[in-house]
What we know:
It contains 10 helices and 11 strands. It is of the alpha/beta class and about 350 residues long. The chain folds into 2 domains: about 1-300, Metallo-dependent phosphatases (Purple Acid Phosphatase, chain A, domain 2, 4-Layer Sandwich); about 310-350.
Amino acid sequence: MMAYKYIALIVICLFGLSAKGQYKSPFNNKEIKVDGPQYSFIVSGHFYGDGGNKSCFPVNTLLANLDWINGSNAAMLVCLGDLFKDVSNDIPNYQTSLFDKLEMPLVNSVGNHDLTDNIYQDNFGETAFSFEINMDIHIVLDTERDNGDINGEQLDLLKEAAVKVEKGNGGNVFIYTHRTIWKEAYDEMDGIFEDNTQSIGGTNYESEVLPILKEMGLKSHVYLFSGSLGSAPASFFHFYDKDNNVKIIATAIRGLPRDAMLHVLVNEMGEASFITKSLTGEKLNPVYYYDVEYWQTEVGTDPFNWKLIPYYIELMVTHRFFWYGVICTSLGFFGVLWFRKRRKKRATLSST
C-alpha cells in the first residue's frame, strides 16, 4: 500500500489536484486548488457568534481576521455548522461581508441555525457530500438530519471512504459535523458539552459509525471535527480515541476573547499537524492541551455575571422555541379543562 501512496504523491507533484472529487463552493463559486502534495485548510464553527449578535452579519472576530485567512494560503475555510444565525435573513449580508471577500472556497457542515424550511438547500445545495484533496478524503455530514443519526446516504459516504482506504486509495480521512454526536460514546466526557446541541435519545455513532471509523483507522488517520461547543472554556477540545485510532476535535468561535481557529497542515508525506490561531491576540497552547482533563477542570469556573440576567431573559423570550413551548403548554392546559368540563357534563346528564 505504501508503494501506491508514493506513486500517487509523484503524480500529484507533477499534475496537481486531479479533477475527480474536486469541490466548488456554492457560497462563492471558488474551487479548491492545490499544487503538489502539501496543502492546508482552516476550520472552526459557529461563524455567527452567539445569540447576542443581531446584526445579520458574521461574528466580528471572523470578519476582523479575513486578511489573515486570505493570506494563509489555505486551500479552503471549513465552517462546522451554524454558519448563519438565521438563514432566512442573513444571506445578503453574509454575501457582501464574507462570501465575496473570501479568496478561497468555503465549506459548511450545517447546524440547526442554518436550516429553516429549504432555504439553505435552495441556495447552497446538498448538506451531505464528500470530496478529495490529493489522496485525502473529506466528508461533510448533516447531523441535523435524523436527529443526529448517520443513516442512508450519509452512512454510505463513510462506507465508500472505508473501501477506498482498504484498497490503498485513500490518505487521511477528515470528517466534519456540527453536533458532537460522539460525546455519549465516552464516559470520560460526562459533565462537558452539557449545554450544546445534542441529540434526544442519543445517536448511532457508537453502534454504526464508530465501527466504520475503526476500520478506516487500521490503514489511515481519521480526524473527526465538530463545531457545537456551547459555553466553553476554550475554542478547542481534543480527544484521541486510541482504541479506534480516531482523533476528535471540536472548535467554535463565539465573539469572545477566547475565539480561535485551527489551521490544519498536511505535509508532503500526508501527515497532518495543527496550529492554533487566536483571533484576538491571546496566547494559546497546542490543540492537544485542551483535552478532557482541561475541560473537566475549567468548565463552570467562570463567575456568573448577574447583570446579564435581563439579556438572558430577552434571548429566551425572543427565541421561537420558547413560544413553541408556550403554545403547546397552553393547548394542553385548555385541552385538559375542556376534557374535564365535558366529563363533568356527561356525569351530570347520566345522573339525571
